[in-house]
């Protein structure tokens, strides 16, 4: 019975949740609605494509889904969609603002009409704004919820789409970041997805190509080879963001720094999801104790490994391949905080070198030896633990901040090199978590560190733990993220989107 309950929990990650998906009758929205339902959610589909939407409801089942005609540019329609979802299912847990359009390609701004620009902005931006507004209206009193919006690759680069479309998707990212700051105090998570082009009805109409034509064009231009992005992949990303946690059956993983903190939590989670795990660390007692605690001798191994030693890192990679036959996942997680020197004049040169030895050279060696065995196999995942210090400044010692920026740079460069071999490379940047590393560096009890983290957090009502980082690693390591590469996934409850100096000033003035 316990095994059945665990299997159910792993396969139905939205059990009891209620979701509203705009643009849910086709493309990414349709795939997401079906996936959410498969994972136990009740789904309300909001769209203007009545016939297609009714067909989706018929497929999902009328007991688990409903259709609401909704033009997202009409506030009354959006308000009604939210209210009807709540009246039908009793609440709203997930708002997926997915409806959007693309205009016809006009690369020169002088050829663009104001009316066309306004139409794209009305649906892609105002529609998202209205969805956010009315979702917040019912989520704030409940002090919980997840708001997700569909942006685009065009939100991160220029020249890949029309002026109107690119402008609109940048705006969606701006809305997301601002709303994350406002709603964090109510325990509401706000995120957006920025997918590469894929063969949806929207893209096919925009490019005037069929499925095969779109996929061939996108595959030719893609950095990551050997895999084609599908709507299901975006739906899986939405599922990850909507759920309170992702699967690795048959995979082989090495986790450096795997004996404690983030590494220990990830080792436990990977094993739970079916992976064979090699724990690499210098903490022999902790590593061996973890193996005994997991009690999976055919699935879990410990290898002593100093990540600053080329021979040690080479050995652990060779051990994994010899024992388990291959290496699918290399999680370069080992790291140290170094001395807490917050002024440049006090920063110690030897400490600076030591932090870089472990945090940067250790990550480099892990990536190098993982690539050595992954390139011939033309597959694999390389992950790094960076830090929120890679995206905010002034809150960590110079050595630590510089090392974590360096890790993100290494990840991005490696993503470009290894994409041609089908190898994905990503990093995770968590906020402060009361791990043994942090409590030891700060010289404070865990409870005191947790109180400090709570007080400074943007997202209230939840305390970040090592498990949250493990969940992020699980998603990035699984096939659910098979087209995600070059991403620095920030796990900080929106902390890095806020201006802490401004917030402190406003509290003083209040």
Give the topology, please.
Layout: H1 2-11, E1 18-22, H2 27-38, E2 42-47, H3 50-60, E3 65-69, H4 75-89, E4 94-97, H5 114-142, E5 145-150, H6 163-183, E6 188-193, H7 201-207, H8 211-221, H9 231-242, E7 252-256, H10 261-272, E8 276-281, H11 284-294, E9 300-304, H12 310-324, E10 329-332, H13 349-377, E11 380-385, H14 398-418, E12 423-430, H15 436-442, H16 446-456, H17 466-477, E13 488-491, H18 500-509
Parallel strand pairs: 1-2, 1-4, 2-3, 4-5, 5-6, 7-8, 7-10, 8-9, 10-11, 11-12, 12-13
Helix pairs in contact: 2-3, 2-9, 4-5, 5-6, 10-17, 12-13, 13-14
Descriptive keywords:
510 residues, alpha/beta, seven-stranded parallel sheet, 13 strands, globular, oxidoreductase, Sc_DH/Rdtase_CS
Plain-language structure description:
- This protein has 510 residues and is α/β, with parallel strands linked by helices.
- Helices cover 50% and strands 14% of the residues.
- The chain has a 7-stranded parallel β-sheet with strand order 9-8-7-10-11-12-13, with helices on both faces.
- It is globular, with a radius of gyration of 23 Å.
- The termini are far apart.
- The model is unreliable at 1-9 (pLDDT under 50).
Shape verdict: globular
Distance between the ends: 55 Å
Q: Provide the low-confidence segments as ranges.
A: 1-9
How many strand segments?
Answer: 13
Beta-strand percentage?
Answer: 5-15%
What is the radius of gyration? 23 Å
Strands of the largest sheet, in order across it?
9-8-7-10-11-12-13
Average pLDDT works out at 90
Counting helices, strands and paired strands, the structural category is: alpha/beta
Oligomer: single chain
Helix content: 40-55%
Number of helices: 18
Report the sheet with the most strands, covering strand number, pairing sense and barrel closure: 7 strands, parallel
Keywords: Oxidoreductase
Family: Belongs to the short-chain dehydrogenases/reductases (SDR) family.
InterPro entries: ABA2-like, NAD(P)-bd_dom_sf, Sc_DH/Rdtase_CS, SDR_fam
GO molecular function: oxidoreductase activity, acting on the CH-OH group of donors, NAD or NADP as acceptor
């Amino acid at each position: 019975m316990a095994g059945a309950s665990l299997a159910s929990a792993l396969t139905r990650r939205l059990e009891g949740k209620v979701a509203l998906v705009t643009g849910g009758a086709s493309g990414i929205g349709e795939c997401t609605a079906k996936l959410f339902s498969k994972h136990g959610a009740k789904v309300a589909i909001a769209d203007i494509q009545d016939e297609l939407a009714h067909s989706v409801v018929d497929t999902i089942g009328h007991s688990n889904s409903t259709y609401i005609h909704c033009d997202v540019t009409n506030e009354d329609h959006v308000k009604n969609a939210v209210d009807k979802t709540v009246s039908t299912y009793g609440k709203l847990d997930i708002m997926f603002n997915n409806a959007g359009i693309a205009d016809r390609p006009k690369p020169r701004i002088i050829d663009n009409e104001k009316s066309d620009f306004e139409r794209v902005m009305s649906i892609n931006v105002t529609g998202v704004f209205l969805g956010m507004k009315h979702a917040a209206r019912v989520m704030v009193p409940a002090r919980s919820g997840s708001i997700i919006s569909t942006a685009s690759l065009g939100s991160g680069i220029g020249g890949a789409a029309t002026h109107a479309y690119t402008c609109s998707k940048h705006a969606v990212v701006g809305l997301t970041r601002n709303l994350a700051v406002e709603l964090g105090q109510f325990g509401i998570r706000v995120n957006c997805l920025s997918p590469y082009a894929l063969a949806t009805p929207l893209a096919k109409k925009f490019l005037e190509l069929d499925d095969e034509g779109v996929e061939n064009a996108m595959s030719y231009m893609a950095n990551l080879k050997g895999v084609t992005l599908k709507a299901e992949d975006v739906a899986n990303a939405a599922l990850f963001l909507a759920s309170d946690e992702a699967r690795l059956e048959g995979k082989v993983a090495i986790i450096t720094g795997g004996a404690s903190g983030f590494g220990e939590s990830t080792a436990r989670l990977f094993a739970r999801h079916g992976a064979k795990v090699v724990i690499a660390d210098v903490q022999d007692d902790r590593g061996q104790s973890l193996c005994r605690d997991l009690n999976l001798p055919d699935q879990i191994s410990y290898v002593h490994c100093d990540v600053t030693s080329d021979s040690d890192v080479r050995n652990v990679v060779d051990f994994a391949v010899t024992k388990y036959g291959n290496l699918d996942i290399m999680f370069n997680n080992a790291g140290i905080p170094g001395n807490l020197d917050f002024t440049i004049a006090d920063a110690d040169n030897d400490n600076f070198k030591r932090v870089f030895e472990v945090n940067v050279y250790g990550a480099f060696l892990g990536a190098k030896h993982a690539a050595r065995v992954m390139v011939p196999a033309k597959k694999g995942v390389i992950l790094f633990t960076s830090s929120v210090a890679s995206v905010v400044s002034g809150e960590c010692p110079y050595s630590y901040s510089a090392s974590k920026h360096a890790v993100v740079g290494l990840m991005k460069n490696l993503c470009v090199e290894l994409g041609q071999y089908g190898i994905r490379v990503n990093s995770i940047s968590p906020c402060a978590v009361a791990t043994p590393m942090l409590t030891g560096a700060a010289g404070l009890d865990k409870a005191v560190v947790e109180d400090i983290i709570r007080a400074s957090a943007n997202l209230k009502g939840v305390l970040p733990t090592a498990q949250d980082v493990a969940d992020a690693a699980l998603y990035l390591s699984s096939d659910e993220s098979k087209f995600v590469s070059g991403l620095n996934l920030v796990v900080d409850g929106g902390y890095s989107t806020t201006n802490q100096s401004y917030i402190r000033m406003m509290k003083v003035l209040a």
